[in-house]
Amino acid sequence: MTELKNDRFLRALLREPVDVTPVWMMRQAGRYLPEYRASRERAGDFMGLCTNPERACEVTLQPLERYPLDAAILFSDILTIPDAMGLGLYFETGEGPKFRKPVRTEAEIMALPEIDPEADLPYVLDAVKTIRRELNGRVPLIGFSGSPWTLATYMIEGGSSRDFRRAKEMAYSQPELLHHMLDVLARSVTTYLNAQIRAGAQVVQIFDSWGGALSHNAYREFSLKYLQQIADGLLREHEGRRVPLILFTKGGGQWLEAMADTGAEALGLDWTTDMGQARARVGDRVALQGNMDPSVLYGTPERIRTEVSDILKSYGTGPGHVFNLGHGITPHVDPEHAGVFIRAVHELSAPYHE
Amino acid sequence: MTELKNDRFLRALLREPVDVTPVWMMRQAGRYLPEYRASRERAGDFMGLCTNPERACEVTLQPLERYPLDAAILFSDILTIPDAMGLGLYFETGEGPKFRKPVRTEAEIMALPEIDPEADLPYVLDAVKTIRRELNGRVPLIGFSGSPWTLATYMIEGGSSRDFRRAKEMAYSQPELLHHMLDVLARSVTTYLNAQIRAGAQVVQIFDSWGGALSHNAYREFSLKYLQQIADGLLREHEGRRVPLILFTKGGGQWLEAMADTGAEALGLDWTTDMGQARARVGDRVALQGNMDPSVLYGTPERIRTEVSDILKSYGTGPGHVFNLGHGITPHVDPEHAGVFIRAVHELSAPYHE
């Protein structure tokens, strides 16, 4: 086991003292980077990057070469599980992910297999091992999965959706059927994340990208319940170290107390939530990750620094904050502006950790 | 002035006692109704309905013929103001509203005229007068407008958007320019709503459909500030009666306290906010309107009644609740299910008003 050279991120997730606030960016290996676009062109397409461990490793490390980031995140897609279940993931330019075989009928849902990560998703585990080896202890590696509810929406709708009509129709007219599907997904996500941890992921994050589309009660019934099931089934210690779990429900800012009850070490926040108010609500129970609007990176360097400063001030002194964007960095951002952001976090946060 | 035969809605907005909780539905005159689809076909298109006062009146009254609704809402579009400013509103099937001439440069923004409702939007005021006359005091009539920020997003993006890239880029790189645009819009919305009130609207609602896309701080700077400006400039008494103002920021559930500070009589809630928690936060300062997920109407009649019951129970006893959906009713809803919903509100709410 390689010793970590920079453990700021792990320490902040466990609410231990740090010198400066650690920072990483969701989708930090992404289209805003010219070197990423070049790798993707060589690979042919997005899945050509995901399914080739060497290429996945290459793009995972690219942002770390440019910026003093405090974490690496596995390059993969949230929809690998339904793809492994046989739904046929594909991407149409400008249209987002789609499935050739959406799952809607009772027969289709009852036939969904639980996945075996070693047999069904070896390329992901190989990528984790390769990246971990190449990182060589530079920063911790984050593994991840989509949440059961978020995966179910794509599987039922056949792609992304504005209103989740079919998934919600199932929730309100055939809830038992949807619960069966969510249970299969929760068991698959649990074994998938545990396999990533065994392969070398030192932190895991669950992306509940569409949990915020649910009502206050339906979130508890159809999303949070399964986040709890996963939290209960995860390996929480590996290589003699705690493996922190980060839950990120986009649009879930009103439900932080309930999310903290799952026992996750940290909660991701989007930009609609005030950091200081969130901290007051969850107290010392969890660390908080976020939450600058990625669109701020379209602003001037001065504005970027002001926004970073405001969020740091809102969180206040002491440990437990991981700086991040409130969602993935977007393709049109100037890479120089991402650098301004990351350097500003380190520079402006030092006084809060004295 | 005709006496109101059913003033439950007005009374609830002013937190006065009622016999049962009043109910209406955003977009209640909409595509889910076959009689609406027939009217629209006769009119040729959506704007053909909006711009003809007799047709606008016809579709406004259609849901009142079917259901025991407690309010009527002017049939119109939130984008009439930018259309009157010369941007050229049009609709492409399945694509939502678009503008032929988006507004992006400093020269385009500085040239935006403040609108004069009597001269620029006479068809809206004629529709208000016609509907008010035909309602003949049956229920109150709601007038409405989009919020300045929401109108600005459509004007800058040229249509609807997933991430509001251009509008947010302006917010973070040229904030003074965006503020000028928002000020012109706020002054136009104020005169527009006041003209609707003088023409007969007894309540006004501002739809801040995209306020929830902003960060906690940016919401205050780019949306709420202009909602306050409008609230300060509105006629608050007309025909010897208070004219209640309803603010609805979709996705604004974390900002209710700040919204209540504007002096609006009521706040609209989407389905992500728990009614009871919202009431505890705003106390007796405002009435609350909402907040069932329209997707519940895809569910069984039993599930619809359960959801209505849960929201009524969460709000609790006493006045100040107007039942509504958390957003507009969607085209695929069975009209029978809308009836189940409306009847359930009246039937199940009576015990909370004894």
Characterization of this structure:
Two copies of one chain form a homodimer. Chain A is an alpha/beta fold. In chain A, 48% of the residues lie in helices and 13% in strands. The first copy, chain A, is built from 16 helices and eleven strands. In chain A, the strands form three sheets. The first copy, chain A, has a seven-stranded parallel sheet with strand order 1-4-5-8-9-10-11. A two-stranded antiparallel ribbon of chain A has the order 2-3. In chain A, helix 13 (256-260) links the parallel strand 8 and strand 9 (266-268). In chain A, helix 11 (175-199) runs parallel beside helix 12 (216-233) and helix 14 runs parallel beside helix 15. The two termini of chain A are 31 Å apart. The model of chain A has no long low-confidence stretch (mean pLDDT 97). At the A-B interface, helix 10, helix 12 and helix 15 of A face helix 10, helix 12 and helix 15 of B.
